[in-house]
Amino acid sequence: MSDVVLLVVTGLGLGALYFLAASGLSLIYGLMGVLNFAHGSFMVAGAYAGWLTMTGLPDSLGVGVRMAVAIAVALAVGALIGFVVEAVLIRPLYRRHIQQVLVTVGLSLTAVAAVQGVWGSDAHPLDKPAWLAATTDLAGAEVPNDRFLFIAAALLLFGGLLALLRFTRLGLVIRAGVENRTMVEALGINVQRTFSVVFAIGGAAAGLAGLLAGVYANSVSPLQGGSMLIYAFIVVVIGGMGSLTGTAVAAVAVGLVQQLANYYAASGVGDLSVVLLLAVVLLVRPASMQGAH
């Protein structure tokens, strides 16, 4: 029984991390129709911003305080980069999807090369509080505490995004702008500014995901954004392109399948199982590639 509890909770924690990585991707595509292949570079930016903050602050502050500040910095850096990328690169290319893909892929490759040029290709260890590295007994299973952090962060982000879209004026403008941008602009509302905010929110979510992925791996590296981006795309496709709720459900499914397959089959089989899950979804529900709101 303890093994099952451990697998389920760690699987939920991994799924929560995938949701953090995929939520911004899903939000940007669902509301703006932009398939952002540079999303991984947003995660790398957040991870390195957090790492630099952790190493730059004095040790006397304590690891917990430095980690809290690093999370805030990762969110801010991700939001800023998302805002700038939308304004400079994406805004001139709305409705030109091929060019969007080429530009965002090029940005992703350039970002990795820049990080490697400045900080090298090796992984850099990331400090974390002792309580985060410890475990908690749950029904006889020793569950790593960082999984609870991932789950809590994912729940807060999911609830916050749903509340933003459904209960705020900004969310109303976003949804109306997606449905009929011309009509909303005729009412004197700056839809373009609203879309810039959406990109910034997606970037902030990516920055947080990047830093927490570093907590999961105990280090940050230039290539971690690319590996997380693969799972983020898988989650978004399985959940339905642009569906935030579908993305959350898919992230949980992917995390659980990966953990259970790695344990009950063999190490590495989990990745294969995720790909097979994606293939099954595309065969049964090919419309998932076309968007689900």
TrEMBL record:
It is a multi-pass membrane protein. It is found in: Cell membrane. CDD domains: TM_PBP1_LivH_like. It holds the Pfam family BPD_transp_2. Keywords: Amino-acid transport, Cell membrane, Membrane, Transmembrane, Transmembrane helix, Transport. The chain crosses the membrane at residues 6-27, 34-53, 65-89, 101-119, 148-174, 195-217, 229-256, 263-284. One of its GO terms (cellular component) is plasma membrane. The keyword Membrane applies. GO terms for biological process: amino acid transport. GO terms for molecular function: transmembrane transporter activity. InterPro entries: ABC_transp_permease, BCAA_transport_permease. Belongs to the binding-protein-dependent transport system permease family. LivHM subfamily. This is Amino acid/amide ABC transporter membrane protein 1, HAAT family. It comes from Pedococcus cremeus. The lineage of its organism: Bacteria, Bacillati, Actinomycetota, Actinomycetes, Micrococcales.
